[in-house]
Amino acid sequence: MRRYVCAVVAVGLLLGITASTGQAEPLFNQWTLSAGGHYTGLNDYTRKVGEYNLGLEEGMGEFGLAYLLATDRGLLVDIDGNFYDRRNILGHAKYRRGTTMAIDVDFRSMTFREGQDLLTNIEAREEINGNPGGKMMGHEVLDPGADYNTHRREVLTRIKHAITRSGDIRFLAQHRSLWREGTTQMTSTSHCITCHVESETCTRDEQSHQIEGGFEADVSEMMTVGAEVGYRRYESKSNAINREYDIAGFPPAANPGRDVEFPSRLLFSDTVLPVFVLPETEKLSGKVNVRGRFSQATSLSASLGYNTTENINQDLTASSWFGHANLATRLSRKTRLIARFTGRRVENDDPFIDIRTFREGRPGPQPSFDFTRYSTLDRRDGRGEVEVIHRLSREATIDVTGGVRVLDWSSFPDTLEGGTATTVFGEGKLRYRPSRRFTGSIRYRAAATDEPFTTSRGILEPRLKETLVRNFEDGETVHRFLYYYEREQFRTVGATTEPTLAQEVELSASIRPSPRLNLTLSLLAEFDVNNDIDTFDVERTSLRPHLNVNFLPTERVAFSGGWTLNQMTSQGPIAVALFDG
Amino acid sequence: MESSYGRGSPRYRRCLALLVAVVTIGLIGGPARAGDVDNETCAACHEEIVAAFAKTAHGIYYQARPALRDYGCEACHGSGTRHIEEGTVESIINPANSRQFDDPILCLDCHRDAQFQDWEFSSHHTEDMNCTDCHDAHAEYGGALKQPVPDLCYSCHAEVLAATRMPSHHPIAEGKVSCNDCHNPHGAEAMLTRDIDNRELCLSCHPQYEGPFVYEHAPVNEDCMICHQPHGSVADNLLIYQEPTLCLNCHDMHFHATVVGFEGVSQDRLGRDYESEEDSWKRGMLTKCSQCHSAVHGTDNPSQATSSGGNGLTR
Fold this sequence. Notes:
The complex is a heterodimer of chains A (581) and B (315). Chain A has 581 residues and is mostly beta strands. Chain A has helices at residues 2-19, 464-468, 484-490, 573-580, and strands at residues 26-40, 58-71, 75-85, 88-97, 101-114, 124-128, 131-141, 148-162, 169-190, 195-220, 223-236, 241-245, 271-275, 281-293, 298-311, 316-332, 335-348, 352-353, 371-372, 379-391, 396-408, 420-435, 438-449, 501-514, 517-530, 538-554, 557-564, 567-571. Chain A has a 24-stranded mixed beta sheet that branches. In chain A, strands 12-13 form a two-stranded antiparallel sheet. Chain A has a two-stranded antiparallel ribbon with strand order 18-19. In chain A, a hairpin with a 2-residue loop joins strand 22 and strand 23 (438-449). Chain B is mostly helical and 315 residues long. Chain B is built from 15 helices and four strands. Chain B has helices spanning 10-27, 39-43, 47-53, 57-63, 66-77, 81-86, 123-126, 131-134, 151-154, 158-163, 179-182, 198-205, 218-222, 245-248, 280-285, and strands at 168-169, 232-233, 264-267, 273-276. In chain B, the strands form two sheets. In chain B, strands 1-2 form a two-stranded antiparallel ribbon. In chain B, a hairpin with a 5-residue loop joins strand 3 (264-267) and strand 4 (273-276). The longest helix of chain B has 18 residues, at 10-27. At the A-B interface, strand 1, strand 2, strand 3, strand 4 and strand 5 of A face helix 1, helix 4, helix 10, helix 13 and strand 4 of B.
């Protein structure tokens, strides 16, 4: 229905505008209708290859319509649309009335197809002394052969209207709606008796609607200010899957007679619960900005904004302030300076999570796992850099950049090591352009981080042997059974594979022997190292040569060819476990 | 075939070009440097260019303004008096030669919309690019870009072209997504369209992952690029590596992967069959983490294990 509404609006706009042209003399008044067709065969078909097509074996007509009207009184109407198949449709309409009104409407419809994961790798049973042990994992696909796909539609409307005759003050408005409907594969896992993964078809029915409004005003010949506010609402009407969780109990062979303990290790058992519940969210945003010049040599651009997002289902809110300022100035006839600053502060609600008591009613430790969920969204993030560009000669420039980024998670109490990552970076670039036919450059960049990004709980375990001979509470050496939660607490906070030192070298050349032929060559090498903790040394090396050729024998014909190789080598302890298996 | 109707099509580029030309020129009242030499004089030597100019994006706008219609050449090329006297290339302003160390970019005198005002801070500008590297002011309406997007962008960013041909990719080659949907080639805020960072940009089209959720996955809050390569990837779902390699970059191996499997078929309490081999646990635990941790972007629903506080992101 909505597509027809859009079509009617577009046609109405077209007819209304055509009628309003009056006596204006058209510079362009042309219709273009195109027609074609395609056939999709499914020989050697894999769904992944056809992920943006319907994936049906069928022939289909294609149609395109374009209309262009331009008059000598500043009226412009430009409409075009294309129909590829019933889910792949694009349309665009543009209207201009001199300098006073500009309207753009885009419609986009596309499909996305997924393959089905048959989960066949999830089937195993433990062996104990040659017999079946207690640990089991299995899978069940409740909808074998399902064909998953989603249909995505978008309507985007942008309006700009000059409020004053001089055009100094402009009203801005935007509306955007997204719809996503279809089916997807959803898996859920029950840890009762066995670790059991079930796959079901889940319907998707999601919508997002956004409106924005604001203004721009030229406050002087050299300065423009603006403000905008926006509201976005996302909701999902997708059907949640109701998953039946079995009665929690130890696998019989491994732990006979201990059924009574197992339920307290799980938050729920012998119950039906929904999975795949997406929360409804609302987002409010506002932003003010100023752009312009102080003088012929100095430019400024700055903005300050605020937004808040609410998870309505859970009454959770995340809010942020953000801003940026850029300044560019000419220090001399041969030297430019650009300074860039950005800052952001994000604060998130911290809900309390009430968890049932572990091993309730049993002898031995009964730790509480209740916790306050502090959010990794919480942060203060500041970045500043200064770039100086100096012209060495008419053909060569040198560009030097230095800056610092400070990312502070100090409002996030689970971070044990101060929670501030400071990155100092620098870059140098020499570029040589002796003529319009050749451009070459060499660039080097280095960034050193004293505390790279890491999650709160720590993610890498020390070697198991070290774990077993320590008591995590008082440091005494013990050998005993370890619970899962104890393993988690042993994990090394602060270990991450993000680099402490990242370096890049890039060589690039662009050759244009004639206006119709262009050749680009480049080589990018990246070297990342993390030597934060001796036992977790990580190295990554990446090498990316690429070659691109463009040839335009005539204005209507273009040939392009490109080749890129991305060779990456990672060296770290984590891959050993994977490939050893 | 797909690109014939895509947002990267010539028609779409034409719209964008005229948006740039007509609106922005009009909003600030038009150039004011005309008046020394009229267009007819220019046409004496440059007949074809002047004749074709009326149907350019600039030309359409100039038609509505008599001063510009008659003296439009000088709006960009400055006074033609000296050029007529000397007849040399050096005696006339050529905007194509305007570079970053010259006076404020000529085109920006008119194109003062917000989307252009960060140009002087942008990477393209500091790379010494000029408006005319991408735009042709003398092309007929719709052809103000020298090539359609994305081909124009690919002529310099060949590595992006290669990425969009990977098995998993945003549908740029299919014409359903354009470079300009995410990037502002005239801008400075990380060269993105309008948002302050990558995450905000991604969430504008994928709002289902925004949250805030009760149970979070930290990198989702940090930057989508930690796990995803937006242009294209060998791995499914635009992941920078296939699972489980990607996950193992931050997480240690699931300890159940070390369990030795029973060789044969057995039943659980409910009578379900389990076919197992010696390496079955490795295969199950080291193939695809998201088979079980399906709510990897965050969820409000607790997972089952008490000891992890419901943090498993499995429902």
